[in-house]
Amino acid sequence: MIWLVFALLTFAAAMSVLVPLARSRSAGAKAVSQRASDVAFYDAELAAIERDVERGLMSADDADAARAEAARRLIGGSAKPAEAEALRRNRTLAALLTLALVFGGGLGLYLYIGSPALRDQPLTARRQAPPEQMDVMAAVAKIEAHLVANPMDGRGYDVVAPVYMQLGRYEEAARALARANRLLGATPEREAAQAEAHMMAGQGKMTPEARQAIARALALQPDFAQGRFYVGLAAEEDGDMALARDTWTKLLAAAPPGAPWADVVRGRLARLGAPAPDAMIAPPSGEAAAAIASMPAPERLTAVRGMVDGLAARLAQDGRDAEGWLRLVRAYVVLNEGEKAAAALAAARRALAEDSGAMERLSALARQLGLEG
Amino acid sequence: MIVETGHYALVLAFALSLVQGIVPLWGALINDRSLMAVGAPSALAQFAFTALSFGALTYAYIVSDFSLINVIENSHSQKPLIYKISGVWGNHEGSMLLWVLILSLFGALVALRAKRMPDDLAATVLAVQSWVSAAFLLFILLTSNPFARAALAPMEGRDLNPILQDPGLAIHPPLLYLGYVGLSITFSFAAAALINGRIDAQWARWVRPWTLIAWMFLTLGIAMGSYWAYYTLGWGGFWFWDPVENASLMPWMAATALLHSALVMEKRDALKVWTIFLAILAFSLSLLGTFLVRSGVLTSVHSFASDPQRGVFILMILVFFIGGSLALFALRAQALKPGGLFAPVSREGALVLNNLLLTISCATVLVGTLYPLALEALTEEKISVGPPFFNLTVGLVFLPLFVIMPFGQMLAWKRGDLLGAAQRLTFAFGVALVGGVLFAAIHGEPALAAACAGLAVFAIVGAFVDIFGRITGGGFAPAAFLRRAIGLPLSAWGTTLAHAGIGVSLLGIAATGWGVERVVSMRAGDVAELGPYSVQLQGVHERAGPNYSETVAIMTVRSAGVVIGTMNPSRKFYGARRMTTTDAGLMTINLGQVHIVVPEQSPDGSIDVRMYWKPYVALIWLGALVMFLGGGISLADRRLRIGVARRAKPKASGAAPQPAE
Predict the structure, then answer these.
(1) A34 contacts in B (CB within 8 Å)?
(2) Which of B254, B91, B224 has the alpha carbon at shortest distance from B157?
(3) Domain A127-257, CATH class in plain words
(4) Is residue B628 domain-resident?
(5) Mutate which of B2, B7, B8, B637 to test chain A, going by most A C-beta atoms within 10 A?
(6) How far apart are CA B127 and CA A237, in angstroms?
(7) What part of B 153-182 touches A (C-beta under 8 Å)?
(8) Is residue B646 in a domain?
(9) Are B570 and B505 contained in the same domain?
(10) B645 in a domain, yes or no?
(11) Which residues span the domain enclosing B79?
């Protein structure tokens, strides 16, 4: 539908130029020539002089002089060359130019900056939309209104909290979780989610509120994995690396086989004890790159480290990925972690021993990065 | 769909502006009529598409479509409808869209009259005008797009800056833009004249009505802005020599000078180079104003959101158009034939003096506005060039204009009779003297106020002396007076009114010298004396508005013990922006105004009240209205509307009358 409207508009725009261009062949006689306009102006000037004389503003002598002056101008102003024959070629060129600008320029520019897929979203319609068609913000607003009317509905808070998280409204998420806990009874999951919300609100820092929430989660269920992972994070942030390593090692030991979070913990463990790099790092290529690039520097570093740790953990499990190893080695060098890079190189050679092509590339990379010799 | 249609229409308007900028100009250069004929219809189409786009944005504001970032940032669902609409241009992106809408409107108006103009002039004017449109459309689309969408539409917007939630916003920017952008037409005419190499009296005739339109709206727009600042900003002043105000005053001065020099060019074929230069200058100054306000070089209520990228873009536009036109000017200026010489004592002589004084005033304001900026940029030293500098310098240069104005009207073209003019102005001089003395007797000090008031009276009365003489010229015959008054050309009435109007404004400005200001702390029941009146605070109430809450003070004003009215100055608190504004209470009594602001409420229940009594202050803005009216009457004069070519043509060529389209 919208494309039909666009097509009509484009057509109208092109026609507004092309039609007069085509019709003007016969319009020559109608146009006001410079000459006619000059004569008309001269007539008007004579009339004005006449009026000035009537009013006594100008003497008869002066009027004669003024008339002569105007006449001189009329004669002097008519030195226009004869009209060139309108060339068919010019019209064709002009028409092509118009089509190129309107279709190419107009449509091209619009596709670059426009959002043809986005519909109008008038407020009234959004408010009245049936629940299944409601957009996120309208749904949130509806739940909020519901909660203002029914402040004791714990489930409402439970539902809205993860949406707040997605929208980046972390403080509201934490508040909603706290209320849900109060109304429905506390669970370790909600406490951990609350800790996460506080951390996000504190831009990745382990805030006092987050620590309290973790403590509450573990009080409810001492072996709650997410909670213990956070304890390790808090310790790391405090600089207590021994406690962090200890906590996570124990957590890994107790992990059920195939736990989805085990890789993350392993990555974290692998990172511990490394000297803090101070060089700037280049963000990795790929889809996440744009998101990472837009973060502030400290967060970006954390994010990149997280990705590198994840990659290391994956390769530790399944080492038959030459590209992955190459990337990992390069990443460690970029992060200024020479020992780890060397270790990764060694591990890669072990894992890819049977792949001669990959071995060659590894050696080339090592030479290039100065890891050998 | 409406929103994206508006967005696409804006892109199409840009594409059309390129076509219109290239094809007719090309046609004019090679004298190909079929190419020139593209100018007018594409100008109309460009206007239609821009208007469609503007309509779509307005629709988005009215229905509170918060999927547009621009609407989120500047609207609120609870805002009254009028502010939803005026909020469209109460922000950077929307105001730029209004700017191009008016640009294309002027283009369309020229297009409608193009049939009466020489082909090549119309084609070139439309092409140049379209280059200006194209530059600003590209600026909007690339750096300030009001149609940018938000990924997630919030349910509520951040509201419009409360200072802008005022009827003034509905009036002031459109009027001012009509003025600023109207000057783009005179600029286009100047550039077209330079491109075509034909700069003559006829050109001046064509350009004068457009200058007049721009000047009228500029006058009204500035006056409206001044009145708005007067009642909103809460310190009772009507002009602050703020750089943004200066940015509008400079084009006004240049346009006023242009209006007068174009007259000389038309009547005497003289001052050609100068007139072209003024036409370029006037628009350049309005571009400069845009740059100063939009780039963030200046901070003020007018600089909504500013960012360097936009500043650089506008700077490029500025350099391109000013530099380009001046280069063209330099290339062509030597080729101009000098016009007829004239005696210093003549109407054209007076007009030259007028131009001299206006340009010096304009240059003074320019220096005063830019010098602090330049100094800060070079040495990081902050100085402020304030009202004392401007009042002294501009006052000294501008005030003599009021003296020469009536003389100018009285002098004949070519050779004037100064003594005769002076004799005929004796009456005006006498009235001015008596008026000045009377003002001094009634209002007392300062003497400067009385002197200026006397000068204003001279300008007002003097403006009518010429017309009066022409009506009563043939001896005393009352029956003939009316006939002659009607028979006078409208432009004579227009001149008289416009000249009288600025005299009226001067009278209002002079009277500010007699103003009374009081700052008092009041409790309910307290009475304060304010000049000839006494003001009593009855009480303070809380009131809820649609998107604000309000503290209103109820005050009664008495004159000699008799109640003459109540006033409700208030403070409004806007929740969405967490901002407070003051709403002045105004009461107009005999052209003067009582102006009350309540800036603060103390915890102990008393309120701080700032009160002013400003005699004749309304004249400042009434004068501008009279000037506007004068311009309008002058514009209605048939002789200014060049229908002549059209009337003369059918006879000459024998062509059939043109069909109405």
Answers:
(1) 118-120
(2) B91
(3) mainly alpha
(4) no
(5) B8
(6) 66
(7) 153-155
(8) no
(9) no
(10) no
(11) 1-162
Interface test mutation site (partner A, options B22, B33, B115, max chain A beta carbons within 10 A):
B33
- Asked if the interface predicted TM-score (ipTM) of this complex is over 0.95, the answer is no
What is the least distance, in Å, from the CA of B342 to any CA of chain A?
12
pLDDT level of residue B475 (50, 70, 90 thresholds): low
Cβ proximity of A302 and A251 under 8 Å: no
Sequence-distant (≥ 6) Cβ neighbours of residue B372 within 8 angstroms? B382, B383, B384, B385
Q: Are residues B235 and B138 in the same domain?
A: no
Question: Which B residues, 111 through 150, put their C-beta within 8 Å of a C-beta on chain A?
Answer: 115-120, 141-142, 145, 147, 149
Is there a domain that residue B256 lies in?
A: yes
How many distinct structural domains can be found in chain B? 4
pLDDT in tens, A36-63: 667 777 777 778 777 777 766 666 777 7
Task: Go through chain B and tell me how many residues it has.
Answer: 661
Asked whether B300 and B164 are in contact (CB, 8 A), the reply is no
Distance CA B89, CA B58 (A): 9
Beta-carbon separation of B4 and A106 below 8 A: no
- Rounded to the nearest angstrom, the minimum Cα separation between A79 and chain B is 10
Cβ of B118 within 8 Å of Cβ of A33? The answer is yes
Give the percent of chain B with pLDDT over 70.
92
- Cβ–Cβ gap A21/B38 under 8 Å: yes
Please give the Cα distance from B630 to B635 (Å, whole number): 9
C-alpha separations of B101 from A184, B98, B127 in Å: 58, 5, 16
pLDDT for the residue numbered A28 = 46
Chain A contact present for B483, CB below 8 A: no
Close Cβ partners of B327 (under 8 Å, ≥ 6 residues apart): none
Contacts of B473 in chain A (CB under 8 A): 55-56
Instruction: Say which residues have a Cβ less than 8 Å from residue B80's Cβ, sequence separation at least 6.
Output: B546, B547
Q: How far apart are the first and last CA of chain A?
A: 66
Tell me: pLDDT of B112 over 80.
yes
Which among A110, A122, A140 has the least Cβ separation from residue B64? A122
Is the predicted pLDDT of residue B608 greater than 50, yes or no?
Answer: yes
Q: For B537-546, what is each residue's pLDDT tens digit?
A: 888 888 888 8
- Point out the residue among A21, A31, A76 whose CB comes nearest to the CB of B119: A31
Nearest CA in chain B to A45: B267
Cα-Cα-Cα-Cα torsion A275, A276, A282, A288, nearest 10 degrees, comes to: 100
* List of chain B residues whose C-beta atoms are within 8 Å of the C-beta of residue A96: none
The runs of H, that is alpha helices, within B63-166 are 69-74, 81-86, 92-113, 119-143
**Minimal Cα distance from A34: which residue of B?**
B118
Instruction: Choose the final residue of a domain: B129, B162, B195.
Output: B162
CATH number of the structural domain A287-369: 1.25.40
Residue B610: name the closest of B516, B518, B524 by CA: B518
Q: For residue B155, which residues of chain A lie inside 8 Å, CB to CB?
A: 123, 126-127, 137-138, 140-141
* Domain-ending residue, one of B361, B378, B399: B399
